[in-house]
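Repro:
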Amino acid sequence: MRRPALYSRSSRRAPDSDSARPLAGDATAPAPVPGPRAPPEMPEPRAPRLRRVLAQPALLWAAIALLAGALLWPVMPWSKPPARALTQDDIHAAVMHTLATRHLPSQVARAAAAVGPSVVRVEGTIPGQKRRRGSAEPGKGVGSGVVIIDDGTILTNLHVVQAAESITVTFADGTESPAGIIGIQPENDLAVLRAQKLPDDLQAATMRSTADLKPGEEVVAIGFPFGIGPSVSSGVVSGLKRGFRSPEGGQQMSNLIQFDAAANPGNSGGPLVTLDGQVVGIVTAILNPTPARTFLGIGFAVPIENAAAAAGQPPF
């Protein structure tokens, strides 16, 4: 009779490694065959690593921040020692060093250079007197003037030209020209001239209001004293709103600028200039109780507001 097959009631399990190994002395188990050896791990190429970093924005920005910090660190405020605050002693020492080691330009020279191209010599031919080039009777036939408009309009004193048969002006570049009177202001001893022949580069002076002019402010007088010039002298404003009576004609003038820059016959009509090179007055008279007609330290100038009005210029 055929016997039925018998099955184990326990679940079928894969043999573990020990049971799968052949027992020692088991002649029937095959000998293990050694397989091929695995190659050693190679380092990952740089390009894939860079792509992986670039693919992560957080890492990329962190790298940029680190690089920027390394570059900016040397110039950041905390990387430098704090600057020492300047003291008044430091400033004083620097000023004294500059004064001791450098030659500072003269303010008077700068003022004279600024207005010099506008100053003219005014010479009149007096009836009965032969005109002599370079000289004339002091205070009568020779004086000074200043160009206030570049069309050849010139301010001077009336007493310089009122007795003249003809008038000649000489500009700073040596150009000579006949000139005529186009306006007068007798109460301020002013005359306005117009030259017929002009230099190519004629320069008009800059005028400045006297509203802020103060006693003690430095001024420069430019003109042709005794026909010599142009001559430059300097001083200060001695006073304002002064009065003066002309010893020749007895004319009373008021609202004058008193100054102590040297002025003599021939300075009449020339500009009185501040250190910034701007005209504040027209020199008109000197005070001298003697017949010597020389400067004793008191001169007078008509404020430029009055002088400009004589030429038809608008007020400041």
